[in-house]
Amino acid sequence: MARLSLNQRTTAQWSLREALDGARAAGLSSIGLWREPVAEVGLETAAQWVADSGLRVSSLCRGGFFTAEEPDAREAADADNRAAIDECVALGTDVLVLVPGGLPGGSKDLAGARERAAEAIGRLAPYAGERGVRLGIEPMHPIFAADRGVVSSLRQALDIAEQHPASQVGVVVDTYHLWWEPDVEQQIARAGERIVAYQVCDWITPVPADNLLGRGMMGDGHVDFPAFTRAVAATGYAGDVEVEIFNADVWAAAGEDVVATMARRYAELVEPYL
Amino acid sequence: MARLSLNQRTTAQWSLREALDGARAAGLSSIGLWREPVAEVGLETAAQWVADSGLRVSSLCRGGFFTAEEPDAREAADADNRAAIDECVALGTDVLVLVPGGLPGGSKDLAGARERAAEAIGRLAPYAGERGVRLGIEPMHPIFAADRGVVSSLRQALDIAEQHPASQVGVVVDTYHLWWEPDVEQQIARAGERIVAYQVCDWITPVPADNLLGRGMMGDGHVDFPAFTRAVAATGYAGDVEVEIFNADVWAAAGEDVVATMARRYAELVEPYL
Questions:
Q1: Given CB atoms, is A109 within the 8 Å cutoff of chain B?
Q2: pLDDT above 70 covers what percent of chain A?
Q3: How far is A142 from chain B (nearest CA, A)?
Q4: Which regions of B14-81 does DSSP assign to beta strands (E)?
Q5: How far apart are CA B271 and CA B274, in angstroms?
Q6: How are beta strands B4-7 and B30-34 bridged, if at all?
Q7: In the prediction, which pLDDT does A209 show?
Q8: Which of A166, A150, A146, A167 is closest to A158 using CA atoms?
Q9: Least CB-CB distance to B147: which of A108, A181, A205?
Q10: Nearest CA in chain A to B115
Q11: Looking at the complex, does the CB of residue A223 fall below 8 Å from at least one CB of chain B?
C-alpha cells in the first residue's frame, strides 16, 4: 500500500477529517485532496490535520476552468488558480490537477476554447514553478469535451505541456479518461517525467444517466489495468497512485468498505505492475 | 437539397416504403438505407422500390462487428459482410458503412479487438473492390469504445484504411463521432478522397441515459457545422450529406416534420459551406 492514495472524492461520504482518519486506519500513506472540503475547515486547519496525519498529499484537485471568453472571467480564473497553487504549498503537495473547462455557454468554438486553456496554463506556469508546484493538465474523456474538459487526449495534453519546462507543467494520466486513446501507450512513453499523477478507476457500461458518475472500481469495467500500469511504470513514474471514483453506489457504501475494496483491487490489478 | 440524404434511422418511425416516399415528397434526391428494413421487405423488392423512387442510395448501414475472438464467429462476420457488399450492389450504392464492433464480452484487450477489426477489413477489401463497393470505416466516439466501436478517431481509421487502395477502403466522417478530435481538420485533409460518406448530426448535452440516442438535430448541440463542413468540402468531397440522428424525441415526431426540420437546418448550417 506504499503508493496507494485515496482521492478524497472516492469517499465523498466522508468529511476531510474522516478521510484522513480512514486513510490512516486502512494503512495508506497518501491522500488526494479537494479544495472544497479543505476550504470548509479552513486551509490552516486542514494543513495542520494533514501534517498530523503523517499522510502525503498526492495532489490537490482542482484548478483549471480556463475557457471563459470575457477578460474579467479569465482574470478571475487566473487568480483562483494562483490561490490553488498557494494552497498546494500550504498542504504540502507539489501537484495541482487542472480540469481545462468546457465550451462557454452557447459557444461552438472548440478550437478557441482549447487555445484559451493553453494560454492560461502558459500564464500560470512560472507562478507554479516558483513555488515548487507542477500543473497537471488532465486530458478528459471526449464525452466531456462540451461541458467540462476541452483537452481530449494525452497527445493533446502533451502538445500543450511540452511548451513549458517539465518542472512547471505536466500531465495527469487517468485510466478512465484515456483507456480508449488509440496510441495511449506511445503517448505515455512520450510523457515520461511529465506524468505528475497516475489516477485509476474503471470505465463501466452502461454509462449512467449522470455521465459524471460513470467511474467504476478497478476491475468492474473494461480497462486493462496491468497493461496500462506497466506503460506508466516504464516511464520511471515513482509517485503515488490515486484512486478517484465518482459513483453513486460507491458513495452510498460505508467509507471503510470502499477503502477496503479499493485496496484489494489495487493490490490485485495495479500494484504488481508498478 | 441536391446533396441532402435522409439516413433511414433518422426517421425510424417510418417503414422503408414511407421513407422512400417521404424523402421524395420532401424533394430530396438521396437516401441512406439500413439492412434490417431492407431485409423486412426483401432485397429484390427493396431494390425495385429504390429504382422506382429515382433516389440515389448514399450508403448502406451497416457491416462490421468484427471483433469476436472465436474463428467461427469471425467467419460468420466475414460472410455477413460479404452479403452486405452484395446488397450494396443490388441496391445501387457503392458505400458500405462499417461499425467496427466493441470489446467481446469480458475481454479487456482493446488492442487485440482493434487488430481483429483491421484484419477483417483487409480480408473483405478485395471482395468489395471487385464489386465496385467501398468499405467505409466509421470511427466512433470513444464513449462507444467498449461496447460498439473500437476505432475511436479519424486518425486511427485512416491508419487502417491507408493500408488498402482508396477504391476499396475509405472512412465515414460523422460530425457526432468526430467533433471533439483535437486535430480533426488535419485528419479530414489527410483523408482526402477516402471520405466515402459525410454524416451530420449534433452532439447534445446532457447525454441521455441511453447513450446511443444522444444525437441531436444540427444546431441543437455543440458542433460547429460550418467549420466542419468547410474542412470536408476542401477535400473535394462531392458526395451526399447524410443526416443520421438517433434520438427518442425525433423518433416520436411525425416523419414529415423531422424531414422538414432536417432540410431547414441543413440549408442553414451545412449546405452553404459545401
A1: yes
A2: 100
A3: 6
A4: 30-34, 56-64
A5: 5
A6: parallel
A7: 82
A8: A166
A9: A205
A10: A182
A11: yes
pLDDT, chain B, mean: 97
| Confidence category of residue B239, pLDDT binned at 50, 70, 90 | very high
User: In this complex, do A152 and B180 lie within 8 Å of one another by their Cβ atoms?
Assistant: yes
Q: What is the pLDDT of residue A208?
A: 86
Gyration radius of chain B over CA positions:
17
- Chain B residue with minimal CA distance to A204? B146
Q: What is the pLDDT of residues B200-238, one digit of tens each?
A: 999 999 988 888 888 999 999 999 999 999 999 999 999
d(CA A244, CA A6): 7
Taking contacts as CB-CB distances below 8 angstroms, the residues of chain B near A207 are 143, 207, 211
DSSP A96-149: EEEE-B-PPTT---HHHHHHHHHHHHHHHHHHHHHTT-EEEE----GGGTTTTB
State the CB neighbour count (10 A cutoff) for residue B163.
Answer: 12
Pick the CATH number of B4-273 from 3.40.50.2000, 3.20.20.150, 3.30.200.20, 3.30.300.20: 3.20.20.150
pLDDT in tens, A88-120: 999 999 999 999 999 999 999 999 999 999 999
Q: What residues of B are in contact with residue A182 (Cβ under 8 Å)?
A: 114, 152-153, 155-156, 159
Q: Looking at residue A202, what DSSP letter applies?
A: E
Percent of chain B with pLDDT over 90: 97
Question: Could you tell me whether strands A241-243 and B30-34 are parallel, antiparallel, or unpaired per DSSP bridges?
Answer: unpaired
Instruction: Inform me whether the C-beta atom of residue B221 falls under 8 Å from chain A C-beta atoms.
Output: yes
Residue of B nearest to A114 (CA): B182
> Distance between CA atoms of B114 and A110, rounded to whole angstroms?
28
Q: A145–B180: do the CB atoms touch at under 8 Å?
A: yes
The predicted complex's ipTM stands at 0.95
Instruction: Look at residue B83 in the predicted model and tell me its pLDDT.
Output: 98
Q: Evaluate whether B44 touches B21 at the Cβ level (below 8 Å).
A: no
pLDDT digits (tens, 9 = 90+) for A188-231: 999 999 999 999 999 999 988 888 888 999 999 999 999 999 99
Instruction: Report domain extents, chain B.
Output: 4-273
Q: Does B209 touch chain A (CB under 8 A)?
A: yes
